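Worked example 4.2. Below are the chains of a multi-component assembly; read each line carefully before continuing.
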Amino acid sequence: MNLSLITQNGQFFFHAGLMALFIFGASVLFTTLIAIICGTLATLRPAAIRVPIRLVIEFFRDVPQVVSVFFIFFGAPVFGLQLGPLAATILALSLWGGANGAEIVRGGITAVPHHQFESARSLGLSPYAIFTAIILPQALLPIIPAYAGLCNILMHSTSLAALVGVVELLKSAQIVIDRAAYYEGGAPGLTVYGFILFVYYIAGLLMSAAISWLEKRFGQSRAEQRF
Amino acid sequence: MSSPFDWSYFWSIAFLFLKGLEMTLFLAVICNALAVILAYVFAAAVHFRIRVVREMILFYVSVIRNTPLLVQIFFFYFGMPEIGVRTDPTTSGIIVLTLWASAYQTANLRGGIDNVPRALTEAMRALGLRPIDAFVFIVVPVATRAVVPAMMNTMVSTIKNSALLSAIGVPELTFVAMDNIAETYRAIENFVALLIGYLAIVLGFSAMMTSLERYLGRGYRR
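Applying the procedure described above to all two chains together yields the following structure tokens:
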């Protein structure tokens, strides 16, 4: 164990951590948008809308995340879409997350009892009001646990950015290890990778705490509504 | 730069992809089987509250589930040799993926075991079953049936996550594809082949598991 390796490179790791946080934040944001839009579209009646969306969702769900990252980074330029490592990772994670999230949202919407649609319609609400005021609130609350799981995976997936060259936590660890092994020798691997695991572990615990707080809060308000 | 889809190239890489597919399938079978076995052992140790072992297993499960698999792979492959554990990429891959999957399967199983109705455990005690018999013959079957869907999901994740092992050079599907691309710059053909490979594995596995689920659920139709 050579902890000075961590303290000496503290600032470097801090910036790498910020980069990971940025990738996480951006991909969660886009994931949520894609998930709500595509998840809703996938519940619509016309097959012309539903079928292609379901196909795209299935495509991204069945392919490993790394493959979608590699596909956007190495494959998309063939179609004229040339993205840097950071943008490619965020796009790939968002599409992957969006596809999985859309499936979750679709499940939530189909789980809303059908009489809710019918009651809302008989009250004369517009389709937009039916969706935003009646269906979406009831659909989104029960899917918080599944959505939290998705966010957790997305947080871990920020490490995939290292494979296409973004300097986030894992890549920063590799750089520090390479340099330390080259100039100082010794055994930096366990220490530095262990440190990265520790950082992710703490971040994961923090997120679990935040999610259980969310669940408790929304669960309560839901219980009050019901009784 | 690159011409549209080139069929002759596509067929020329088919054999390489079959080799990769074989490796991915091998990883899928070995890792999932070992992980499920380990998960039952771990879940039993936690269930019976074996003192230090229980805490260690719970800590292990939470560490694995709260850290990225890719970092775990690098930690094991590049870190462990420093304390004398030096294994080749494929062995390292099998070990890490098995440990990863077993943590998730343990969590799944624990969920099932905790949800076995209290009346059932009390009835077992009233009948005078030894705790170990009660666990093996009553708790495990009931819990397993409840968690089969969750375990299936984890198995599919394990198969898909085997793609991460390409980062340390395990010659599975993704590695084959990226290797080909590095060699010939033909991205599209390789990604199409990759997609077909994973679709075949994942959909085939899902079909198999659905029939298994139906088999396990027989007599439980509502």
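Take a moment to check your reading of the output against the notes. The radius of gyration of chain B is 21 Å. Chain B touches chain A through 39 residues (CB under 8 Å).
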